[in-house]
Amino acid sequence: MTDGILGKAATMEIPIHGNGEAGQLPEDDGLEQDLQQVMVSGPNLNETSIVSGGYGGSGDGLIPTGKQFSYAGWEVRVEPQRHLICLREAGVRELGPLGSGRHPSHSTTPAGPGDEVARGIAGEKFDIVKKWGINTYKCTKQLLSERFGRGSRTVDLELELQIELLRETKRKYESVLQLGRALTAHLYSLLQTQHALGDAFADLSQKSPELQEEFGYNAETQKLLCKNGETLLGAVNFFVSSINTLVTKTMEDTLMTVKQYEAARLEYDAYRTDLEELSLGPRDAGTRGRLESAQATFQAHRDKYEKLRGDVAIKLKFLEENKIKVMHKQLLLFHNAVSAYFAGNQKQLEQTLQQFNIKLRPPGAEKPSWLEEQ
């Protein structure tokens, strides 16, 4: 029954007679019956919000006097002095008495600040996806054109040669790194074998009196070789660690910039081709606007390409200087350590480690923290 009320108006005033009964409302008999039921039985306590006072009056019904309460989604205010019952739909501003010509609107509630922010974020995400889709399409088209020999590409011959040389150098250094790790593993296995062999000779020298001296000599020799081998292993580990840093961090960082440069080059050529196609087309009002937009986009990608090209050139120069400095030190270390080890020169081997500030960890010691390594 309340649906009929909601369908009529959001705000209305209904006159009441002195006996507390609602006046006739020709537009909706159901409204009058609902109001009479409220006045007779009182509003539902579960839906009532009494502002002040209680219920009073005489006769068969109970009418709230000067009170405001809620009923079936409506805010009800009784004004006995004016002989009126004012109804207002919850959440809708009061527009005036029924029949005044000011009809309430049942449109949705205006969006709040939160809704506006949500719509703004959604719009920004849509624009980002749209731009990404257009850019991906143009770059894919340019890439396929280059692969099939139909499109032109911008080439910096000197820079391209340096980049290719860097990639080739990185592959060779990775091979050296792999071999160095294999040498480290073999040296470690050799040390374990020599250590076990020395212990076996020492044990046999105690249990074989007739061969005690011979077993003792060999036990001391294996222990000395084991000690020198640990020194050599420390030097080789330092060599491998430095090569690993050079390959996986320094060179890789430069190649990441190279990848960004190549992506910028592809975008630059894609938008350059798009601008050239628009320039060859007819010139009208619509085309002129598109041409100006394409020119601005092309210039932005050109600036990005030029910047990254300069960054790559600078990083390649610094990388070459750093590589020469690091490898000069590491190759000298590797040569001196290996030569001293196989010559049996323990003193020179120890001096080599001191020269390059290499500290050996005792067997079973934990790896130092990264703060101690700084």
From TrEMBL:
<dbReference type="GO" id="GO:0005730">
    <property type="term" value="C:nucleolus"/>
</dbReference>
<dbReference type="InterPro" id="IPR030798">
    <property type="entry name" value="Arfaptin_fam"/>
</dbReference>
<dbReference type="GO" id="GO:0019904">
    <property type="term" value="F:protein domain specific binding"/>
</dbReference>
<feature type="region of interest" description="Disordered">
    <location>
        <begin position="96"/>
        <end position="116"/>
    </location>
</feature>
<dbReference type="GO" id="GO:0006886">
    <property type="term" value="P:intracellular protein transport"/>
</dbReference>
<dbReference type="GO" id="GO:0034497">
    <property type="term" value="P:protein localization to phagophore assembly site"/>
</dbReference>
<dbReference type="InterPro" id="IPR010504">
    <property type="entry name" value="AH_dom"/>
</dbReference>
<dbReference type="InterPro" id="IPR027267">
    <property type="entry name" value="AH/BAR_dom_sf"/>
</dbReference>
<dbReference type="GO" id="GO:0030742">
    <property type="term" value="F:GTP-dependent protein binding"/>
</dbReference>
<dbReference type="GO" id="GO:0070273">
    <property type="term" value="F:phosphatidylinositol-4-phosphate binding"/>
</dbReference>
<dbReference type="GO" id="GO:0001726">
    <property type="term" value="C:ruffle"/>
</dbReference>
<dbReference type="GO" id="GO:0042802">
    <property type="term" value="F:identical protein binding"/>
</dbReference>
<dbReference type="GO" id="GO:0034315">
    <property type="term" value="P:regulation of Arp2/3 complex-mediated actin nucleation"/>
</dbReference>
<dbReference type="GO" id="GO:0032588">
    <property type="term" value="C:trans-Golgi network membrane"/>
</dbReference>
<dbReference type="GO" id="GO:0030036">
    <property type="term" value="P:actin cytoskeleton organization"/>
</dbReference>
<dbReference type="GO" id="GO:0140090">
    <property type="term" value="F:membrane curvature sensor activity"/>
</dbReference>
<keyword id="KW-0597">Phosphoprotein</keyword>
<keyword id="KW-0333">Golgi apparatus</keyword>
<feature type="domain" description="AH">
    <location>
        <begin position="154"/>
        <end position="354"/>
    </location>
</feature>
<dbReference type="Pfam" id="PF06456">
    <property type="entry name" value="Arfaptin"/>
</dbReference>
<dbReference type="GO" id="GO:0005938">
    <property type="term" value="C:cell cortex"/>
</dbReference>
<dbReference type="GO" id="GO:0005829">
    <property type="term" value="C:cytosol"/>
</dbReference>
<dbReference type="GO" id="GO:0000423">
    <property type="term" value="P:mitophagy"/>
</dbReference>
<protein>
    <submittedName>
        <fullName>ARF interacting protein 2</fullName>
    </submittedName>
</protein>
<keyword id="KW-0472">Membrane</keyword>
